[in-house]
Design a protein that fits this description.
The chain is of the alpha/beta class and about 280 residues long. The chain has 11 helices and 11 strands. The strands form 3 sheets. A 7-stranded mixed β-sheet has the order 5-4-3-7-9-11-10, with helices on both faces. Helix 8 links the parallel strand 4 and strand 5. Helix 6 runs parallel beside helix 7. The protein is elongated, with a radius of gyration of 21 Å. The mean pLDDT is about 95.
Length: about 280
Amino acid sequence: MPAATAATVRDALGAAVDALKAAGVETPRLDAELLLAEATGRDRAELTAAPEAGVEPAAARRFGAMVRRRVAREPVAYILGRKGFRRIELAVDPRVLIPRPETELLVEVALELAPRRALDVGTGSGAVALAVADELPQTDVVATDTSLEALEVAKANRDRLGLGERVRLAQGPIAADERFDLLLANLPYVSEGEWEGLAPELTRFEPRRALVAGVAGLDAIEDLLAALATGRLRTRAVALEVAVGQAPTVAQLVRRAGFDSVETRRDLAGIERVVLGR
């Protein structure tokens, strides 16, 4: 890899950008800068301000190894081992999905409703639960996941952020006598037919079980709403992240589960991304 033997920042970035473009990476320059910053211990602003600065051989080797991983379409967040979400930084690896900006909408709903007790179903890395606890000091959060591996990641993030007293982690279903003010969920919503057409970053590296939910992509959401409809889960409000085009169907399902007031929230791209029932 030419980047591994580059003498300057300009050379290293130029070679990496070319390699990433050829591999079909959508943001080659940004990714190259993030990886070089990690390899050299400098921040991106410093790198772009001094393109003729030298790159030490050891840093160049680290950078070359990371670029090769990105050329193979491994996500930058997995290569770095971390991802920013709202005000917090989360450790991430292939045991959990990488938090997306659109999922921040769930946190915004929580900020609006200010629940005393919140439940985050399918917590993964803990992104939503931990961001809610971070930004709402009066809120206690229970975070669940069916994956023990995901809960291990969430626990490490929770403990590192010092939120152990206010975020309880649990595997599997919650006891029926527990009541919540708000249930938040970013559940799998990709259909079986969509899977093969997704980007390699998803199909090769991110956990399929956290993405795919049956023929229509609604199995996990339907199961959760069935638990609410039958009283196995109790909450005053529910906010669900959904895929493009799913909002009308999910809104109907939320109404059938017993929530009289139902609305949708759009993400920054204008997509109906969250269905809120109260």
